[in-house]
Structures are given as C-alpha cells and as structure tokens.
Amino acid sequence: SQQGEEDPQALSIQEGENATMNCSYKTSINNLQWYRQNSGRGLVHLILIRSNEREKHSGRLRVTLDTSKKSSSLLITASRAADTASYFCATDDGSWGKLQFGAGTQVVVTP
Amino acid sequence: DGGITQSPKYLFRKEGQNVTLSCEQNLNHDAMYWYRQDPGQGLRLIYYSQIVNDFQKGDIAEGYSVSREKKESFPLTVTSAQKNPTAFYLCASSMSGHQPQHFGDGTRLSIL
C-alpha cells in the first residue's frame, strides 16, 4: 500500500523558477525521505527529515514537515534543466526497512 | 567507487520460465531490498533482508523468491507463478533499516 501521496502529479517550470511539491501521508512516522529518479535510472536519496524536525536544508533543497497535518513539502530553488526528474517521498513508520513510497511528482525544467 | 550493480539492464522472459535478476553491492551494507516499479507508480517492496542468511517478505512477494548467502549479493528470481512480471525492478541497500537507501540502476523485465 502507498502511504505517501505527492501533489501535483506533474510540474512544468522554467529555469530559475522555484518548484514546490507536497507529500501527504496517513499514519505516524519515524522519518520521511525524499528521493529523485532520473528517467530509466535508480532513485537517489536527497533528504531525510525526522519526525521531531520541522525544516531541513541541503543546497538548493528545502524540506518541511508538519506532523499535525501529516504532510511534507520539497522546495527546489533556482531550478536548472538538470533538476528534470521524478521526485518521490517515502515514509518510514518505524517498521524495519519498510519504506512506503508515493507515486511521485514528475518535474520538467525547460531552459 | 562504492555502489550497487544490477544486471542485466534488460531481460526478457518466456512463458513458464523463471528468470533471475542480479544485485551486488560493495557498500558493506547489512540491509538489502528489492522493489518493483510500474509505470507512473511508486515503488512496492517485494523482499528485504536485514542480514546474511535472513530475508522477509514485503508487500508483493507472491511469485518471487530471493536468497542472501553473501553480504554483497541479493538475487531475485521471478518465477512462472508471477503472472504479470513486466516491470522495472530496483535493488537497494542501506546500513540499517532506518537509514537512507542506495539504489542500483534497475532491470527492466519484459515478456516475450
């Protein structure tokens, strides 16, 4: 079963603009992770945010977590064509190793 | 360079045939995972292994089998009992069950 649900399903922006995508989940979590997948490739881990954290930054990425609303957002600032990919949230509910992935947000950044 | 290697990149299966997908990691990770990805969907967990000689069923284990005889290797067999095997299969590993997972570049399996 998929716990995380990303919104929007697809996003098209121009280089230099910011991209924001959201993830909602149903049950309590230990942590929430964001991954990127380029077409035809494996996933790459971006950021892990724990349930007691509210915001985390990594380079041009900013992740927020609101456990009261069971939601998270990923912001990519000053996007580049190389950011074109699908972005997935995955929730860790404390069950060993069992991440629940959403269906992803497909982001296209045009030059 | 450390990483996860999946092979082959593309695989074709005939009706009634079992096929085995290879996954090797040199990251010295204890945990390994197999996922299935269908178009436009997220990943679904097939099997996972916390340690050598131990593995557990995930959410969609029916029609699949695995072994974990070595720390570095976690092969997945898609058996003839899996009636809809066409998908993109991803292998991953992590230091432990609550750490970020590192992924291979996948094997795309199709039916002939």
Describe the structure.
- The complex is a heterodimer of chains A (111) and B (112).
- Chain A has 111 residues and is mostly beta strands.
- Chain A has strands at residues 5-7, 10-14, 19-24, 31-37, 43-50, 55-58, 61-66, 71-76, 85-92, 99-101, 105-110.
- Chain A contains no helices and eleven strands.
- In chain A, the strands form two sheets. In chain A, strands 2, 4, 5, 9, 10 and 11 form a six-stranded mixed beta sheet that branches.
- In chain A, a hairpin with a 6-residue loop joins strand 9 (85-92) and strand 10.
- The radius of gyration of chain A is 13 Å and the shape is globular.
- The model of chain A has no long low-confidence stretch (mean pLDDT 94).
- Chain B has 112 residues and is an all-beta fold.
- Helix content of chain B is 0%, strand content 50%.
- Chain B contains no helices and eleven strands.
- Chain B has strands at 4-7, 10-13, 19-25, 31-37, 43-51, 54-57, 64-66, 76-78, 87-94, 102-103, 107-111.
- Chain A binds chain B through residues 1-2, 4, 30-31, 33, 40-45, 48, 88, 90, 92, 96-99, 101-104, and chain B through 4, 6, 31, 33, 35, 40-45, 48, 50, 58-59, 90, 92, 94, 97-98, 100-106, 108.
What gyration radius of chain B follows from the Cα positions, in whole Å?
13 Å
Number of strands of chain A: 11
- Quaternary structure annotation: heterodimer
The parts of chain A where pLDDT drops under 50 for at least 5 residues are none
The helix fraction of chain A, in percent, is under 10%
Characterize the main sheet of chain A: 6 strands, mixed
Question: Beta fraction of the residues of chain A?
Answer: over 45%
* Elements of chain A, N to C (H/E): EEEEEEEEEEE
Protein structure class of chain B: mainly beta
Helix/strand class of chain A: mainly beta
What is the arithmetic mean of pLDDT of chain A?
A: 94
The SSE order of chain B reads EEEEEEEEEEE
Average the pLDDT over all residues of chain B and give the rounded result.
94
- Assess the beta-strand content of chain B as a share of residues: over 45%
